[in-house]
Specification:
heterodimer; A: Immunoglobulin-like; 6-stranded mixed β-sheet; 4-stranded antiparallel β-sheet; globular; B: 114 residues; mainly beta
Chain lengths: 115, 114
């Protein structure tokens, strides 16, 4: 498959364990954040998002936590499965009230799930 | 509902040539954004179109241009290709491209410049 990134931070977990992927965002004015998952040979796939007026949001098996004080996002994946193996990106939107087209992406973390 | 489609999936060009990539958004989506993805720089925003107008532009040279048609389909063009333009070019669409509108990505076009 195609490489989506070299020298990415890698998180290796055992199947069934919980995973936590961290992301530091750049701009304190950012007001909307998204996590994407990218598998080899595919485009980024939306996982979950959160607005800056929240500090936690839960989806199916995933939870996003936002700490605006230290400009930190985390993605928690419960009961990690082999199909979760991918590169995970956080993205921030600087202009929530206006055009959202410009997302700023983090460098990504490669999650590897061992069966 | 069909997802975002991009054509072609793979392209090989030589330095100095130009290239046009195409993106068809999800039906009903009016905002289309383009991103360049490379191992060294990651995902970087190129530009965003809404109702045939460019609303936002990233920090790329003028060799990179785009347009959007009345049916929301979009094309991007790169002229005078350089080796460093080799990348995965991703297109994303959203309904209005505002607020908490989710951006959905296509599979990308892998461009190789020789």
């Amino acid at each position: 498959g195609e490489s989506v990134g070299l020298h990415l931070p890698t998180l290796s977990v055992q199947e069934g364990d919980n995973s936590i992927i961290n992301c530091a965002y750049s701009n304190s004015a950012s007001d909307y954040f998204i996590w994407y998952k990218q598998e080899s040979g595919k485009g980024p796939q939306f996982i979950i998002d959160i607005r800056s007026n929240m500090d936690k949001r839960q989806g199916q098996r995933v939870t996003v936590l936002l700490n605006k004080t230290v400009k930190h996002l985390s993605l928690q994946i419960a009961a990690t499965q082999p199909g979760d193996s991918a590169v995970y990106f956080c993205a921030e939107n600087l202009n929530y009230g206006g055009s959202q087209g410009n997302l700023i992406f983090g460098k990504g973390t490669k999650l590897s799930v061992k069966p | 509902k069909a997802g975002v489609t991009q054509t072609p999936r793979y392209l090989i060009k030589t330095r100095g040539q130009q290239v046009t990539l195409s993106c068809s958004p999800i039906s009903g989506h009016r905002s289309v954004s383009w991103y360049q993805q490379t191992p060294g720089q990651g995902l970087q925003f190129l530009f965003e179109y809404f109702s045939e107008t460019q609303r936002n532009k990233g920090n790329f040279p003028g060799r990179f241009s785009g347009r959007q048609f009345s049916n929301s389909r979009s094309e991007m063009n790169v002229s005078t290709l350089e080796l460093g333009d080799s990348a995965l070019y991703l297109c994303a669409s959203s309904f209005l491209g505002q607020g908490a509108d989710t951006q959905y990505f296509g599979p990308g076009t892998r461009l190789t410049v020789l």
